[in-house]
Design brief:
By secondary structure, the protein is mostly helical. The protein starts with 5 loop residues before the first helix and ends with a helix.
């Protein structure tokens, strides 16, 4: 189980870079060069973030992307939802079917409690808070 997928990680890194550049438009080429993220992944990620209202895109020779929201208004949980859907730790699977004991499972309740704490803690992390840690 991965808590943060590759796409979410790349999105966080790209957004943090753009947040440090303040109001400047950041090109895909600059992000590829500075962050060493493969172009094909990065373009797809940036387009998804544009579609979800996190970024604004600019076309043309000096085009690129810019944050649409302030760093303090971009939560890590928002990015996880864009690329991973709702965060779930307690999805029990047995032979590709949901467990028949899901309603009686003694472990499921504990895992659910842990999941709630993880989601709660991640919900406090913003792009601004990540930049303040540097």
């Amino acid at each position: 189980m991965k808590l943060i997928t590759r796409d979410t990680d790349y999105a966080i890194r790209a957004i943090c870079f753009m947040a440090e550049n303040k109001e400047e438009i950041t090109s895909v080429s600059e992000l590829v060069e500075k962050l060493k993220i493969p172009r094909q992944f990065l373009r797809k990620i940036l387009q998804a973030l544009n579609k979800k209202g996190v970024l604004t895109s600019f076309k043309g020779k000096s085009g690129g992307f810019k944050l649409r929201r302030k760093p303090q208004d971009i939560f890590i949980t928002d990015l996880i939802k864009v690329f991973q859907g709702p965060l779930k730790l307690n999805k029990c699977i047995f032979k590709k079917k949901l467990c028949s004991s899901v309603d009686r499972c003694i472990l499921r309740e504990k895992i659910g409690e842990i999941e709630q704490r993880v989601v709660s803690e991640l919900g406090l992390i913003t792009v601004a808070s990540l930049l303040n840690k540097r």
